[in-house]
Amino acid sequence: MNFTVLTLFPDVINHYCNASIVGRGQQAGLLSVNTVNPRDFSGNKHNRVDDTPYGGGAGMVMMAPPIVSAYESLGELPANTPVILTTPAGPTFNQPMAKQWADAYSHMVFLCGHYEGIDARVAKVLPNVMPVSIGDYVLTGGELPALCMMDAVSRYIPGVVQKADSVTEDSFSGEQTLLEHAHYTRPAEFRGHAVPDILLSGDHAKIAAWRHQQSVHVTQRYRPELLPPE
Ligand code: 6GU
Q1: Domain residues for 38?
Q2: pLDDT tens digits, residue range 102-125?
Q3: Hey, which of 2, 39, 109, 154 has its CA 20 to 30 A from 214?
Q4: CA 78 to chain centre
Q5: Burial class of residue 20 (count of CB atoms within 10 Å of its CB; 0-12, 13-18, 19+)
């Protein structure tokens, strides 16, 4: 998978993507993350990439020409390559989308919005533009959403996550619609809190049943709407 991020803050993207599991995936050649800065395509002496909104109102709007020029600098991309436009005004990203994108695409472009938004003509001019939000709150820019989505997609690229089970067992992964049970590791006792005995019992059937019951409890408490109807 090749990710290209159009962003005014390439350092933010690269710092995260060069660390941890996504960084290791890049080192292993399983994925790549590249950034292009629309500011380098401003076409004006002051490197301006935003302007006041037609019709008036608060804030600034990202101009279309620098973004479209930045995109065109990428050259030929696979025909189905999506351009994910990060915006609170879109459908909400979820786990099935992460899986589907990982399966469907070899290249994805993320366009990180800033200021009040992006000139609407960008979505008319670029191919395969899909607005996507990461939830019902407003962020100052699209870098964190792009990172969230790339991270979630990366986990579905074979080899990126060490143990295949840890992807399919996760909450929201399709085979599992409950929240995850609690996890414990050494030490067996910490500040008066012991690890539940059953986890030390070696009885795998009992452990599986206990974990399931824990999952139901956690889901009941925090996300009851995820529980199947009675
Ligand atoms: Cl994708 N962008 C911004 N700026 N804010 C958001 C978002 C995206 N998703 C939720 N809030």
Answers
A1: 2-154
A2: 999 999 999 999 878 999 999 999
A3: 154
A4: 21
A5: exposed
Section 20-30 average pLDDT:
97
How far from 229 is each of 71, 220, 222, 226, CA to CA, in Å? 46, 12, 16, 9
pLDDT band at 31 (very low <50, low <70, confident <90, very high): very high
Does residue 127 carry a pLDDT above 90? yes
| Helices marked H in 28-130 | 64-72, 95-104, 121-125
Indicate whether 108 and 25 sit together in one domain: yes
Q: Decide: 144 in ligand 1 pocket, CB within 6 A.
A: no
The minimum-distance atom of ligand 1 relative to the CA of 132 is 1
Asked if pLDDT for residue 169 goes beyond 70, the answer is yes
- The phi, psi pair for 179, rounded to 5°, reads -70, 160
Is the CB of 138 within 6 Å of ligand 1? yes
Is-catalytic flag, 116? yes
- How many domains does the chain fold into? 2
Are residues 182 and 138 both part of a single domain?
no
User: 31 CB under 6 A from ligand 1?
Assistant: no
CATH of the domain at 101: 3.40.1280.10
**Does residue 39 have an active-site annotation?**
no
Q: In terms of domains, do 32 and 137 share one?
A: yes
Is it true that the peptide bond before 187 is cis, omega within 30 degrees of 0? yes
